[in-house]
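Consider the following assembly input.
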Amino acid sequence: MNVRELAHVMALTEFIMPEPEREVSGGYVGDLLSWVMGRAQNGNVWLTIMSNQNVAAVALMAEVSCVVLTEGVKPDEALRQRAEQQNINILGTKLSTFDAAAVLKQLMR
Amino acid sequence: MGDLKLNYTVDGGDLIQAGEASSKMKMTLKKLGLPPEVIRRASICMYEGEINMVIHADGGEVEVTVGMDTITIRLTDHGPGIPDVDRAMEEGFSTAGDVARDLGFGAGMGLPNMKRCSDDMQIDTQVGVGTTVTMQIHIN
């Protein structure tokens, strides 16, 4: 499954999606950025409520396939800009982090 | 062929902007065609180092040396130094302030991540003088 397909099946809001063809593999949940950087795997869908521009930097370094902002959180303007510059997919959902992770887990089976 | 040297300056002060040097290095490593996992590890090492320098030392200098079989990342700052390196290496130990924590940093994972993502890491530090962290990542 790629990011575009994920966005479709989970009805995600597409804030910034410069790389829709990026393949998705597994997921990671976390708001502590260093923790995410140490544990998330290449290609993971990263679920978080953090919305500052450091999220784009972490996504770039950890090579996650996309960031999904949960709980209705929206990216701030600086994050949008940095995500555009660095080709980071930023999506969103109104689902709680718990529910979003549960749906994602089903999809990854 | 000689080693390629890349030099970056990390500005102190603005944690929100941090990551610029790491992003640039990552792009350069990609252009060089290095293996993706090597690039990923080097990028995490450098980004964590960059964040540390901004939080604790008001910025610093980074020298990246790309050799035939090793990438060496040397981060040098003139910050307060690390009084207890063993303690600093413990997962979860952090002296970062509230601003860093509010942004999602200061979880005490920076140095452990750098250690895990590098093949060798050395910390030379002197309280009141500064810190140099040298990391090596093997290419093959």
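Chain A is about 40% helix and 15% strand. Ask yourself how this observation constrains the way the partners meet.
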